[in-house]
Amino acid sequence: MVKSEKAIERVEPAPPMAWAVAVAAWFVPGLGHALLNRWVRAALMGGAVWLSFILGMLMGGHLFSLSSSQGSSALLQVPPMIANLGAGSPYIICWLLDKGFADDLVQAARATYEYGNTFLLIAGLLNYLTMLDAFDIAAGRKP
Amino acid sequence: MRHFLVMTVFAALASVVFGAVAKDTPRERCFYGLKVFAEFMLIGLVLGWILYFIP
Question: How far is A68 from A74, CA to CA, in rounded Å?
Fold first, then answer.
């Protein structure tokens, strides 16, 4: 038996609870680890995501979404939208309240606009890492 | 907000998550987080100086 076959054999399917934890971790940053009683990790990782998102909004960052009015250039919105969407409920709440999605020239002229964009993107990407970490712990793949 | 402060906050937030995700023991995680933070800061400063001389 070759080494790769051994590695494939060792992978066990994740229990449904692990998927539920992953969804919770995505939806509310930090909740996944809190459900697993990993309070320090929940505070550190969830706190970093929340802080990054809030700072991004305060700096006037722009949240991306699919927009049909931009023709084929709407495709360019997809990668940053996926990154933003990683933040979970903060993104959805902003979408429901229509905060941060408008193409406002005054907002774009702010000195911190690009910083805000970066913080918002990073908040989502860090939450993806947080979500995967919570999933691995819940699935028993990580101590 | 000053640019350097923003960069520091960014590096701190990212390195906290990177440090928490990686490695096995709390000590290793702490060192890794500090290492990532230092790398973010150092590379940011180096790139800043390089771009300063490029018109």
Answer: 7
Instruction: Please give the radius of gyration of chain A, using alpha carbons only, rounded to the nearest integer.
Output: 18
A45/B6 CB distance under 8 A: no
Q: Show the tokens assigned to A91.
A: 């993104």
d(CA A79, CA B37): 26
Q: What is the dihedral of CA A50, A52, A55, A61, to 10 degrees?
A: -110
Who contacts A50 (Cβ-Cβ below 8 Å, separation ≥6)?
Answer: A29, A30, A90, A123
pLDDT of residue A142: 82
* Average pLDDT of every residue of chain A: 87
Q: Is the pLDDT of residue A70 over 90?
A: no
Give the chain A residue nearest B7 (alpha carbons). A115
Count Cβ atoms below 10 Å from residue A109 Cβ, excluding itself.
9
Distance from CA of A48 to the nearest CA of B (A): 5
Residue for token digits 């230092």? Answer: B38
ipTM of the complex: 0.87
**Owner of token pair 């790398």:** B39
Taking only the tens place, the pLDDT of each residue in A8-42 is 566 678 788 899 999 999 999 999 999 999 999 99
Which pLDDT score is estimated for A3?
Answer: 57
